[in-house]
Every structure is written in structure tokens, then in C-alpha cells.
């Protein structure tokens, strides 16, 4: 349901219905508002608006929260990015979403840069074989020895992943995820008592290019939906964190 409500296409359909039903007898201020809202929807359906939203979300993690060379000895936590199909075995890598591939690649590259440290892959999922189990096998194929790998396989959300790892890792951890997901992950891990530093495995932001940057595109609509979902997720997690703090 949230994906439908956050989709610019849903807003466009509602706008067209409102304009069709009210335009002929509407007052000037209502027509002006319809024009403004319609323009905003068009921009959010185009790369120019979608990428501005993505950049706003991704840049909400301050530089002080980014990992530095001083964090090279801190454990790594890779947050799974989901499954697109039920895995038939632990090496059924095609079941992973592109986001999961990119996040694990970012974690493995980070692991290779310094002396070996533990890498925890977090993510359960709805199937008998967890996301973490599939990603853990793939990490071994990419050269991370099994003795350095740990899997958290019960969580179904980022919040649950952070809470499940409490007491199993030191306070300072390097959290690897996509740039759009890092703000929400940071709130969750801080609420769980960690002092995380964040590492972006990839970014959805694309700088301005050709004239197509101003034309509505399906990929732009998807970006807008992702950005709004993550922004609402950050707000929700902050509310949960305040509630958890008040109960302590």
C-alpha cells in the first residue's frame, strides 16, 4: 500500500481527477494551486526532480558520520537489500536483488582494504533460506574466508537488524548500505546503542545531462518513490527511537 501512495503516478491520477471535476467552476486560487501542484508532479516524474530528492536524502548523512581511515579496525556490517525471488539454495545468487549485490560488493571491497576484520551480514527475509545466508556464500566466493563472516538471519527490517546485533559487536561498527538507505540505517543503529560510521556502497543520484533530464521517465518515478520511502522511514525510526528512549 505504501508504494501505491508514494508513487508519483498515483498523485498524477488524483490530480487529473481533481482538475477534471473542479476546473470549470473553480475559483482563481484553486486553479492556480492545481497548476502549481501539477507542475510539481511533472518535475517529480522527471530526473530533474527525482535526483534532487535523492540527493537531499543521501546528503542527510553528515561528513562526521562517514567512515575514515581511523575506522579500519572496526567490524563491518553489511545490510542486505532484499530478495527478488525465493532462493532454492544458498548459492542461488540470482534470487538477490541488484541492491543486495551492490551492498555486498561494497562491503567486500571495504574488507579487502585493510587487515581482516569480522564482517556481519544482516537480513532474514520471508523465506526458509535467508538473505544473509545467500550473501554469506557469495562473500566467500568473492574471497572473504568463512571464519571472518557472521550472519544475522532473523530480522526483516533495518530496525530489527540493528536491535538483533546489540551485544554481539562493539559500539563502533562500519555500516555498509546504499546511500539512500544509510540515513535510516544510521538512526536504527544509534537507537540500538552503536556509534556507527556509514559507508555508501552505491548512489542513485545522477547529475544533470541531456534534455531528457527534464522529461518524465519511469526510472525517475521509481527514484522519487524510493526517496520518499526512505525519508518517511527516517522519520518513523526517529519516532521509534524517541519512544524507546522514553521507556528506559
UniProtKB/TrEMBL annotation:
Superkingdom of the organism of origin: Bacteria
Keyword Transmembrane helix among record annotations: yes
Keywords: Membrane, Transmembrane, Transmembrane helix
Key word Nuclease present: no
Annotated DUF218 domain residues: 76-233
InterPro entries per UniProt: Cell_Envelope_Assoc, DUF218, Rossmann-like_a/b/a_fold
Transmembrane segments: 29-50
Name this polypeptide is given: YdcF family protein
Source organism of this protein record: Lysobacter auxotrophicus
Amino acid at each position: 500500500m505504501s508504494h501505491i501512495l508514494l508513487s508519483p503516478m498515483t498523485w498524477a491520477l488524483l490530480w487529473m481527477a481533481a482538475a477534471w471535476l473542479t476546473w470549470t467552476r473553480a475559483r482563481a486560487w484553486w486553479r492556480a494551486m492545481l497548476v502549481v501542484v501539477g507542475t510539481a508532479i511533472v518535475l517529480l516524474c522527471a530526473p530533474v526532480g527525482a535526483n534532487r530528492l535523492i540527493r537531499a536524502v543521501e546528503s542527510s548523512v553528515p561528513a562526521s558520520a562517514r567512515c575514515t581511515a581511523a575506522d579500519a579496525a572496526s567490524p563491518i556490517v553489511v545490510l542486505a537489500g532484499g530478495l527478488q525471488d525465493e532462493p532454492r539454495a544458498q548459492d542461488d545468487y540470482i534470487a538477490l536483488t541488484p541492491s543486495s549485490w551492490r551492498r555486498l560488493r561494497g562491503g567486500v571491497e571495504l574488507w579487502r582494504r585493510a587487515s581482516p576484520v569480522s564482517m556481519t551480514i544482516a537480513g532474514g527475509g520471508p523465506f526458509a533460506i535467508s538473505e544473509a545466508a545467500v550473501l554469506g556464500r557469495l562473500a566467500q566466493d568473492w574471497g572473504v574466508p568463512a571464519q571472518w563472516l557472521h550472519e544475522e538471519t532473523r530480522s526483516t527490517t533495518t530496525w530489527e537488524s540493528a536491535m538483533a546485533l546489540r551485544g554481539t559487536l562493539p559500539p563502533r561498527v562500519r555500516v555498509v548500505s546504499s546511500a539512500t538507505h544509510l540515513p535510516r540505517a544510521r538512526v536504527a543503529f544509534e537507537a540500538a546503542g552503536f556509534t556507527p560510521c556509514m559507508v555508501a556502497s552505491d548512489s542513485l543520484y545522477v547529475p544533470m545531462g541531456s534534455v531528457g533530464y527534464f522529461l518524465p521517465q519511469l526510472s525517475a518515478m521509481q527514484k522519487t518513490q524510493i526517496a520518499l520511502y526512505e525519508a518517511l522511514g527516517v522519520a518513523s525510526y526517529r519516532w521509534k527511537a524517541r519512544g524507546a528512549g522514553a521507556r528506559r
